[in-house]
Amino acid sequence: MGCTEPVAVAFAAATAGSLLKGRTASVLVRTDPGTYKNGLAVAIPNTRGEKGNLLAAAVGAVVRRPELGAELFSGLPRARLAEASALVKAGRARIEVDYSRRGIYISTEVRAGSDRAVCVLEGGHKQVSLLKLNAKFIIKAPGRSGAKPRLPYKEALRKASFRDLFRAAERVTPEELAYIKKGVEMNLAAAREGLKLKKVGYYVQDLIKKGYLKRDVISEAKLTAAAATDARMAGVPVPVMSSGESGNQGVVAVLVPWLVGKAFKVPERRILKSIALSHLVNSYIKVFTGELAPICGCAVAAGVGASVAVVWQRGGADPRRTALAVNTVISDIGGMLCDGAKSGCALKVASSADSAIRAAWMAVHGEGITDEEGFVGRTAEETIRNISLISTAGMDKVDRIILDIMSAKRP
Known about the structure:
The chain has 2 domains: 4-140, CATH 3.30.1330; 152-408, 2-methylcitrate dehydratase PrpD (Orthogonal Bundle), CATH 1.10.4100. It contains 16 helices and 6 strands. It has helices at 4-17, 33-38, 53-63, 78-89, 152-158, 162-170, 174-194, 200-209, 217-233, 247-263, 268-289, 297-315, 319-333, 345-364, 380-394, 396-408, and strands spanning 26-31, 93-97, 105-112, 115-122, 128-133, 136-140. Helix 5 packs across helix 11 (268-289) and helix 8 (200-209) runs antiparallel to helix 9. It starts with a helix and ends with a helix.
């Protein structure tokens, strides 16, 4: 519920705060650049539109309920919000960005009375690598100092091929399919709430109603995915199923294959399996590009995952057509920049849905971008490694410039 990065910051602060007694005296947060960027301009649920990681940290430090996990902002009491806001206004909540960090890194230090608690998340939005109260370590991840924790599922994905992902999708259990169906329902419910806001999704729908756009599967996917993102970025207190540790990517990865499958009367079980594949592809790409890359994950990860899922719905595990879909999406919108989570993400989600469906339809018919053009490769795996290299090595300075521009606009 809410944007992933502020939720993670609040979770870290709540985990530290849960070790303390008495009223919260101060909060200090240090994050990697990507987490800082993604939490700068996005609204927090149940705060009447207030924004940012700093308030999220203060909320977590006073609520102190880490057991709520990613729904920490649900049912936020007004008294707790007022207490958190007072910490921020008094300058007793501070945030710093650590430019040396890559990937998810969130360190929160919470003080109450004479006690000090620290919680560090690394490698995942709920992955606690360090937790201590004063000088006593409660959790300390093994390994050399400064080493990034390696999560087993990410390591498995890093070694996988698309054939492995196809096999995994085929082995999805009925219980897992039921879980995925709940995600579909959750994300559709978020879209219904988003249409009430008169933002991106609403105006795509308005163009359809007035006859300027045709009501078809592409328009339906664009407006539905955009509306769900509108709701999230505005801080509407509705949960979504995420993908690759991103709520907006979950919106694309789940809703696009679902809506396309329903439009083409694909059996529901097959649609749900294709969504499992969409999740797998999205997460596979992100182990190479990084969790918080300078390029938009809704485009190069979730958009690709959705496109591969649609190809699989219609033709099964076909490496050649899959590669065409991957190449076409990345060739089309691979240069889309990430400038943090905010209302404009709904525009990028709409573009990703459009590109995913178009690329899939081309690929199903044997058409798409090949390795003769641009930076795409001979295989899907090679293309993903190429865009990863561009993102991690080629755009490192670009990310810092974007963050500097964004930070300079804040008082």
